[in-house]
Amino acid sequence: MSRAMAVLLLAAVPACARVPADNPTLTAVEGLLVGHHTLAERPTGCTVILADGLVVAGVSQRGSAPGTRDTDLLEPVNGADRIDAVVLSGGSAFGLDVATGVMRWIDEGNGPWALRPTDVPIVPAAVLIDLWVGGKPSIRPGADCGYRAAAAASRARVGEGSVGAGAGATVGKLTGLDRAMKGGIGSAAVTLPDGLRVAALAAVNALGDVIDPASGAVVAGARADDGSLRDVRTLLRTGAPLQRTRVAENTTLAVVATNAHLTKAEANRVALMADAGIARAVTPAHTTADGDTVFALATGRWRGRADLDEIGALAADVLAEAIVRAVKQATVVAGIPAARDIK
User: Fold this and answer.
1) How far apart are CA 152 and CA 316, in angstroms?
2) Is 118 helix (H, G, I), strand (E, B) or coil?
3) 315-330: per-residue pLDDT in tens?
4) Which residues contact 39 (CB under 8 A, 6 or more apart)?
5) Region for residue 184 given its phi and psi (left: phi exceeds 0; alpha: psi -120 to 50; beta: otherwise)
6) Predicted structure pTM score
7) Domain extent at residue 167
8) What is the pLDDT of residues 72-121, one digit of tens each?
9) Number of folded domains that form the chain
10) Looking at the domain assignment, is residue 4 inside a domain?
């Protein structure tokens, strides 16, 4: 599709489709819908971000153990010029099947684009490992989970906490799984006076602690015998032995988005800059046991003049905020305490 045609299509979007300014989550960016599906049998699930129109995407993968699907298509030198959806899922590599269900939902004519019979929906995906949570590792998200999440997607304020891909997420595992705390889904957004919007959604399942960049305080992480927070920044400097989890049992997954127009190369740069938000809010970040992956989306609905550095810097800020919100909004699951329970 040519850029001129895309502009005409976006200009036809009715004003009533605009998201209210009081929505401080990813769906504040016009053209994006979010849906969760959480499994009842075990704490796990998936989160689907649907594109309502032409959306350009990029990706940054700094974690050492990513589990992904179709992220190569987002490289600037490769051919996909738009995406239909992005999937975040629990269940480790089994959760990659979620994307198949989303593709099926779109292929059945439920998506915003009228696809030709030969069109293939583009649905990149990334997964986190939560198989140890809840004691039933054979229960994990699959294609049906993705189909249901896509069907539930809306422009409403994004649900946060122990839902969707964050249902079985945990953080603070440097002193062992038995000292971990609950991770989850978090989202944040900022709107500038000129109308530029930048937002983020994060599924936080990190090996390290979650730190509030505003205060420097540990919000959730490794716990001591009495249940208090250890603060791994101090712990690491003591040289104390750490009880590492297995490779890939951790990961922070994120989607950042803007209503500005970006090229594919620019979207990849925004994803790379936004990745700094993980480093600000998770300590340590991007370890050999994390599969950290950040997607960047640009809907092009805003008519202003975009500054790439401004967008990237804002994306890092809102991503850090989303990570903090993920653990603050989480609730106790399978006996794993949440930040709201720490006195």
Assistant:
1) 28
2) coil
3) 999 999 999 999 999 9
4) 45, 139, 141, 145, 167
5) left
6) 0.91
7) 23-341
8) 999 999 988 889 999 999 999 999 999 999 999 999 988 766 566 658 89
9) 1
10) no
